[in-house]
Structure formats: C-alpha cells, structure tokens
Task: inverse folding
C-alpha cells in the first residue's frame, strides 16, 4: 500500500515538473497533457515502435487490447501523472495571468 502512495506522488510530481518546464520553454499550456496520453500508450502497449510502421494493424490491435487490460491500480497511478500535467497547465495559466512571463 505504501508503494502505491509513493508511486502516485512520484508520477504526479514528475509529470508536473516535466510539463511545467515544457510549458515555460514552448509556451504551449496544454501540450504536455496531450503528449502524456501518447506516453501512457507507449508505457502500456508493450509493442515496439517499429511495429507501428511495419505491422500497424496488429500493433494497434495489441495496443488497444493491452490498454483495456490494465489494472485499476495502474489506472490510478497513470491518472496521477495526467493530473500532474493538468495541474501544471492550470498553474502556468494562473502565473501568466498574474503577470509572470515565463521566458
């Protein structure tokens, strides 16, 4: 149970930090929230990236199958990462509205 709590906090903090830095550098507030979904896809699918180019039908079928078979614990952990990217976007918008210019 303690490992679950640590992983939730870890995913939230890591993806909050990555999204915050990318938001400052690229000035695209919600970009990382969309990129995170692709990252989750590659974490869950267990298919090599080259398979998407050589055998796309089979790769996407396997990827969707693996995505539907993740456990609720995985959903909570990955959801914490998504929440981190969303909170990062909200914080950046608030800071920009308050007058802070990030790069």
Result:
């Amino acid at each position: 149970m303690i490992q679950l709590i640590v992983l939730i906090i870890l995913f939230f903090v890591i993806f909050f930090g990555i999204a915050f830095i990318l938001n400052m550098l690229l000035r695209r507030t919600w970009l990382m929230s969309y990129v995170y979904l692709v990252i989750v896809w590659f974490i869950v699918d267990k298919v090599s990236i080259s398979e998407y180019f050589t055998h796309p039908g089979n790769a996407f079928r396997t990827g969707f199958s693996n995505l539907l078979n993740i456990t609720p614990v995985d959903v909570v952990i990955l959801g914490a990462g998504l929440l981190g990217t969303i909170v990062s976007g909200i914080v950046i918008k608030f800071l920009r509205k308050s007058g802070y210019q990030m790069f």
Q: What stands out?
A: The CA atoms of residues 45 and 61 lie 10 Å apart. Residues 2-97 form one domain.
